[in-house]
Design goal:
The chain has 401 residues and is α/β, with parallel strands linked by helices. It contains 17 helices and 11 strands.
């Protein structure tokens, strides 16, 4: 069974999470991904936890393993002129080149888009950064938290009486990585039509603004700057979490019909005739009065009892899970195959995340391990590029790898 991107070769000169997350998505869908790393230390996220117990050295990071499964690691020194030439030779035989260095860095090294386009006019050159490849802030360095901060996301996240809050996961990197992946797929399709490669430019700040939903419209149309609203939706009510005897439950009444069913299920059908709650705008305006009513109803019940009760009336509802609960849920872990077992050297068997996109014709269950640092250097230089053992030994002496 073929995967959607079989036959596509990707060179991933990436670090941290933004670029690697994009490369991981492409690799999961069948692309051959060659990860370019720094000899000796590798990608910076090889030093990020969680770590495999008892494992030392550059292959100790479960963080790295989780986003590099099935890839090939080539450890070469890109500050070495011969290593740069080798990279260009790889690009000549590839379809996609991904990098998320600070803009200008690879241009200084002679590995920018204009440089690699001369080597391979069909190359899709995907550049991820904090602020984009052009504009007044383009030279600024960035990480996920920077994108969340300046993209407007952080100021809307958290509780009204608390400071702005970073999201619990690195959404600035993850959303940007998804957009970069989408851009690559679109550029590959354009190349199919025209034969031309191109530069794909995705910025974290742009991406965070793009996922801000209607926040920008609220300002541009109504002149209102959205504020932090905790777990509640700023314009749809009730759309929030409520206390239970064993945690929290999420209830989402997205329209008046659902709210009527919720009121009936709660044994409070009179709420739909209350002028404070009869329409969504009224409920939104008077949520301070509505939330205690719903909370009083939920607080002496278990979250799964509420969930099962409300689903009988087709009311969107779910228990608020912690990571342990969602990882161990049969629907998620087994039926949706979102938890898979990987035999990851040098540690052994470990449970990792599956692939969230399900195809009817091309089943994807990523169980290949992540590479050990430099594991495939000689395989790629010898096999893909055709260098002999003697030449590889000379490269070592010259500090290429």
């Amino acid at each position: 069974m073929k995967k959607p991107l079989e036959g596509i070769r990707v060179i991933s000169a990436t670090g941290a999470l933004f670029g690697p997350y994009c490369a991981m998505l492409l690799g999961n869908m069948g692309a051959e991904v060659i990860k370019i790393e720094k000899p000796g230390t590798g990608d910076m996220n090889r030093d990020w936890g969680p770590f495999f117990p008892g494992v030392q050295g550059p292959d100790k990071s479960a963080y790295f393993a989780g986003i590099h499964r099935g890839q090939k690691s080539v450890a070469i020194n890109l500050k070495n002129e011969k290593a740069k030439q080798l990279l260009k030779e790889m690009v000549k035989k590839s379809d996609v080149f991904i990098q998320n260095f600070k803009p200008g860095t690879l241009e200084e090294w002679g590995l920018g888009y204009e440089d690699l386009k001369k080597v391979n006019p069909r190359i899709i050159y995907a550049a991820g950064s904090g602020f984009g490849q052009y504009g007044p802030y383009s030279s600024w360095a960035s990480y996920d938290i920077i994108g969340q901060a300046m993209g407007g996301f952080m100021d809307m996240n958290g509780w009204p009486d608390k400071p702005p809050c970073r999201a619990g996961s690195s959404i600035g990197d993850i959303a940007s990585g998804m957009f970069l992946c989408i851009g690559i797929l679109a550029a590959l399709r354009y190349r199919d039509l025209t034969g031309k490669g191109q530069l794909v430019d995705v910025a974290q700040v742009d991406s965070m603004l793009a996922v801000s939903e209607t926040a920008a419209l609220k300002y541009t149309v109504e002149g209102i700057v959205p504020t932090r609203s905790g777990a509640a939706h700023p314009t749809i009510t009730p759309f929030d979490i409520y206390p239970t005897t064993d945690g929290w439950v999420c209830i989402a009444a997205g329209n008046d019909g659902i709210f009527k069913r919720l009121a009936d299920a709660m044994g409070k059908p009179e709420m739909v005739k209350d002028p404070r709650f009869d329409t969504n705008p009224h409920r939104n305006k008077n949520y301070g009065a509505l939330k205690p009513i719903i909370s009083d109803w939920t607080k002496d019940k278990k979250k799964w009892d509420i969930t099962n009760l409300l689903h009988k009336s087709d009311i969107p509802c779910a228990p608020v899970y912690n990571i342990k609960e969602v990882v161990e849920d049969d629907h998620v872990a087994k039926h949706r195959e979102m938890i898979v077992e990987v035999d990851q050297p040098p540690y052994g068997k470990v449970k990792m995340l599956g692939f969230p996109i399900k195809f009817s014709e091309t089943k994807i269950v990523p169980t290949e391990p992540a590479p050990m640092l430099g594991q495939h250097t000689e395989e790629v230089l010898g096999g893909l590029l055709g260098y002999t053992k003697a030449e590889l030994e000379q490269f070592k002496k010259e500090g290429v790898y």
